[in-house]
Design brief:
By secondary structure, this protein is an alpha/beta fold. The chain is built from 9 helices and 11 strands.
Length: about 260
């Protein structure tokens, strides 16, 4: 069981999906008891078992169908006497298995370790994000400064961007210490499948950045994805308030995305 929960934690942090199959009730002969679990991953690999044989095969196939979606399912399986005899049981039985999609852990990737990031990281953990702080200054990206962050990276940002695993559960916030650094990160960010991209700055600074990026081949469609000025308009002025405004906007995008997935 520990292996399954460890696998779930790893998959969620990597932004990968899976389906957890759990036996919730049995009647008659059954290959495993209530509580037995099997984790089915997107690559077809499994961790754990719900008993093997025909029931496990059926549950496995059903799990693969559910991985792409967000809906859970209670599946009902019956073993005929012939099926049971093949699996070493004296008679058939009934097994109910709950199939539950495992969603990726939403990742908050913050470029810049300044005052806004300091408060944003705290709020991000409060609302269940995996928080990563990235800054090229070690004194601004370390575990002492950001004890709530899951990861702090003090390296050249261009190098870090090349190895980040950004997916549809990633939320990118660009609040570095300089206009040029913000623009460089934004040029990369708009090419990713991130659910949210936000960049701090005045309207003038944003126009300048967008114009520059267009000369480098970035399209208007890509730039339309950017939330900038960043955050909901709540009259925020100090870093704490700006962090609240940013997270409010991220939560809004996150919930709207969930609603679209639930309807699809």
């Amino acid at each position: 069981m520990d292996d399954i929960y460890e696998a779930i934690a790893r998959l969620r942090q990597r932004g990968e999906k899976a389906v957890l199959a759990t036996i919730v009730s049995t009647r008659g002969s059954a290959p495993r008891k209530e509580g037995a679990k099997m984790l089915v991953q997107t690559d077809g690999k499994i961790v754990g078992t719900v008993g093997g044989g025909s029931i496990e095969h059926q549950a496995y196939q059903e799990a693969l169908k559910l991985i792409a979606g967000n809906e859970s399912k209670l599946a009902h399986y019956e073993l005929t006497n012939d099926d049971a005899s093949k699996e070493g049981m004296t008679c058939g039985g009934i097994v109910d298995i709950f199939l539950e999609p495992i969603k990726p852990l939403p990742a908050l990737v913050i470029f810049g370790g300044g005052h806004i990031s300091f408060f944003l990281a705290r709020i991000g953990k409060m609302v269940d994000f995996y928080v990563t702080i990235i800054d090229d200054r070690p004194e601004f990206a370390n575990a002492e400064r950001f004890p709530e962050a899951d990861e702090t990276i003090a390296e050249d940002m261009a190098s870090v961007m090349k190895r980040l695993n950004i997916n549809s559960a990633s939320y990118i916030v660009i609040v570095t210490r300089g206009h040029q650094k913000d623009t460089n990160v934004l040029e990369w960010a708009v090419t990713t499948p991130a659910a949210y991209i936000g960049m701090i700055g005045s309207k003038r600074k944003i126009r300048t950045s967008f114009s520059h990026l267009k000369t480098k081949g970035i399209t208007q469609k890509q730039l339309d994805r950017v939330h900038s000025p960043i955050g909901l308009s709540i009259g925020a002025e100090i870093p704490e308030e700006i962090a609240v405004a940013i997270m409010a906007e991220i939560i809004q995008v996150r919930r709207q995305t969930d609603e679209i997935k639930d309807k699809s």
